[in-house]
Every structure is written in structure tokens, then in C-alpha cells.
């Protein structure tokens, strides 16, 4: 497998966690979203992913983009350890939380949007994340155990950790979100979350390395 990734991309990080949890060895092809006006806009990368976004994963003779689609594929082809609970209600809760982050928070504070916003980009990102986290904290009161849904790591957790990292990067006050903070801390102690961390990638700049 070949993963087209950017060290700081939260969507790429989700997939790196899934690959680590499932023990899938892969090669990284770094796509720098800032260098050369954004390497994702090159003709070469557009042939890999017409949406010109990371991640993209070449695996089993196909190329997939969109982080949740990739994680679903890994779940269906490499079911252990499972990232979706067997119980239909818990499974729905995992998908709900994953979508809440992947559709409701991350896209409206990502690089492409912030470029359009301009000088107020930090304030914009803080507002997007804060409103999303206020709702998420409330949801987690009903679903959380050790992790987002019960005591097993799920797809929801793969979305949570990178989003908290984004929040910290944009200096969001995390004090109002004790459940999010607790779960994030527990997840960052797991090996799969450590090895996939932005500070430990082949394309991580020297000053940001762990």
C-alpha cells in the first residue's frame, strides 16, 4: 500500500491511525500542501486524486480517497481489530460522531477555507471548532466510556484526536470540554496514535519532530 499524506493533515492522520491499528505496512508519499503553491494541485497528484486532497491510498489494486471511505474499506477487508462495534446502536453512534467531526467541523476550518478567510482565519477556526466541540461534548455525555463510544477504540476516536490537535494549534480553550480532553489523553497513550502522530512522520519538519 502507498499512502499519499501530509504530516499535519488531520484527514491523513485518521488513516495513518487505522493502518497502524490494523498492522498494515505502507509506503508514504508526502504531498506538501504549502510548498510550490500546494503540491496537491500538481497534474501528477490530480491523476491520483481528482479532488486534489490528501489522503489517498493505493491498496489492493485500487486507489481510494476520502478518509472515512478508506477506513471503512480497511474495516471490511482487515476486520481485526474492529473499528465499528457489532451492536447496531453503538455502530450508529460511532458513525454519527465520526461524521460530526469529518463533515461538521474539519472541512470548515481546513486550509482551503482558511486561505479564503484571510486575516481573520484564526478567529474563524476557533469559532468553527468551538461550536462543534460544544455539541460533541454533549453527545459524549451519553456515549463515552474510556473512549468516544464505550471502551473500544472506534472510527470516532480516529477522528477525535486529529481534531483536538487542530483545536490546540488554533489555541482553542479546551477547559469547557473535559470529556473530549480525557478521551484524547487516553488515546494518545496508545501506540497506534503515537506512531501516526504528525510529529513522527517522514515529512515532518525538523523543528516539529518529536
Write the layout of secondary structure elements.
Elements (H helix, E strand, L loop, with lengths): L1 E4 L4 H12 L5 E4 L12 H6 L7 E4 L2 E4 L1 H11 L10 H17 L6 H7 L3 H23 L11 H15 L8 H10 L3 H5 L15
Parallel strand pairs: 1-2
Antiparallel strand pairs: 1-3, 3-4
List how many beta strands DSSP finds. 4
Count of discrete alpha- or pi-helical segments spanning 4 or more residues: 9
- CATH class descriptor of the largest domain: Mainly Alpha
Cα-atom Rg, whole angstroms? 16 Å
Approximately how much helix is present in the residues?
A: 40-55%
* Shape call: globular
Uncertain runs: none
CATH fold type of the largest domain: Glutathione S-transferase Yfyf (Class Pi), Chain A, domain 2
Catalytic activity: RX + glutathione = an S-substituted glutathione + a halide anion + H(+); 4-maleylacetoacetate = 4-fumarylacetoacetate
Main location: cytoplasm
Family: Belongs to the GST superfamily. Zeta family.
Domain GST C-terminal: 87-206
Summarize this, please?
The chain has 210 residues and is of the alpha+beta class.
What do these coordinates show?
With 210 residues, this protein is of the alpha+beta class. The protein folds into 2 domains: 2-80, Glutaredoxin; 88-193, Up-down Bundle (Glutathione S-transferase Yfyf (Class Pi), Chain A, domain 2), CATH 1.20.1050.10. It is 50% helix and 8% strand. It has 9 helices and 4 strands; from the N terminus they run βαβαββααααααα. It has a 4-stranded mixed beta sheet with strand order 2-1-3-4, with helices on one face. The longest helix is centred in the middle third of the chain and has 23 residues, at 121-143. The protein is globular and about 45 Å long. It starts with a strand and ends in a 15-residue tail after the last helix. The model has no long low-confidence stretch (mean pLDDT 97).
Amino acid at each position: 500500500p502507498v499512502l499519499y499524506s501530509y504530516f499535519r493533515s488531520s484527514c491523513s492522520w485518521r488513516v495513518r491511525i487505522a493502518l497502524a491499528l490494523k498492522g498494515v505496512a505502507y509506503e508514504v508519499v508526502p504531498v506538501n500542501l504549502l510548498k510550490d503553491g500546494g503540491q496537491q494541485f500538481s497534474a501528477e497528484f490530480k491523476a491520483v486524486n481528482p479532488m486534489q486532497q490528501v489522503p489517498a491510498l493505493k491498496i489492493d489494486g485500487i486507489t481510494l480517497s476520502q478518509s472515512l471511505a478508506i477506513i471503512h474499506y480497511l474495516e471490511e477487508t482487515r476486520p481485526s481489530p474492529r473499528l465499528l462495534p457489532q451492536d447496531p446502536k453503538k455502530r450508529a453512534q460511532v458513525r454519527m460522531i465520526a461524521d460530526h467531526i469529518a463533515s461538521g467541523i474539519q472541512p470548515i476550518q481546513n486550509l482551503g477555507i482558511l486561505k479564503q478567510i484571510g486575516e481573520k482565519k484564526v478567529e474563524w477556526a476557533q469559532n468553527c471548532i468551538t461550536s462543534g466541540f460544544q455539541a460533541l461534548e454533549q453527545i459524549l455525555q451519553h456515549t463515552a466510556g474510556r473512549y468516544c463510544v464505550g471502551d473500544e477504540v472506534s472510527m470516532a476516536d480516529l477522528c477525535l484526536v486529529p481534531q483536538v490537535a487542530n483545536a490546540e494549534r488554533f489555541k482553542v480553550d479546551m477547559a469547557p470540554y473535559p470529556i473530549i480532553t480525557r478521551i484524547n489523553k487516553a488515546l494518545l497513550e496508545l501506540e497506534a496514535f503515537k506512531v501516526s502522530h504528525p510529529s513522527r512522520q517522514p515529512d515532518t519538519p525538523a523543528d516539529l519532530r518529536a
